[in-house]
Amino acid sequence: DLYTLAKDKYDHKKYYRAIELFQNLVYSHAGDAIVDTAQYYLGMSYFGNDEYQLAATEFNRLLINYPASAFAEHAQFMRAASTFESAPKHFGLDQSELKPSLEQLQEFVSDHPESPYLADAQALLLKGRTRLARKTYESGVVYARVESYDAAKLYFQKVVDDYLDTEFAPRALFMIADGEFRLKHFDTARVKFEGFVKVF
Length: 200
Prior knowledge:
- This protein is mainly α.
- The chain is built from 10 helices and no strands.
- It has helices spanning about 1-10, 15-30, 35-50, 50-65, 70-85, 100-110, 120-145, 150-160, 170-180, 185-200.
- α8 (about 150-160) runs antiparallel to α9.
- The longest helix is centred in the middle third of the chain and has 28 residues, at about 120-145.
- The N and C termini lie far apart (about 60 Å).
- The model has no long low-confidence stretch (mean pLDDT about 95).
């Protein structure tokens, strides 16, 4: 009866009440067969309520305590998604919380290559990698603007080396060639521009 009431609140997006009821189930009825389901929906309720760090904690708890649960696969994805959502959205802010989520997403992709959530995991991976690529790229742009082309090149090269699958890789490669041109390293610049044309 308690689960039915909690699930009804969840289905109607009354997440605060659903959280209270699912918490009651999880903490007061340990050992009951319904507890892993309640644990899963407790995480989903936190996620629905935009409390992403708490959601990640509950999904992690499910994975540790009920690894054989029917909800384990989705909980693994949702743990990564919750960690991803808890990171600042603007590339210029501290992205230290983003890196563990990308590791979790990569782990999920490796563990579940045929999962129905695979495309969502890959989309989040690319989105996160693009954010990190832009942060690095924009640091290079700052140095290029003050004509510190050697310093700028270090950042642009990191984008090319680490984030080749993102939209900032071709921009970074162009900026490396442009920096060589502005330093009057014309032979090197020509090779870089020719490489850019071939690849992109």
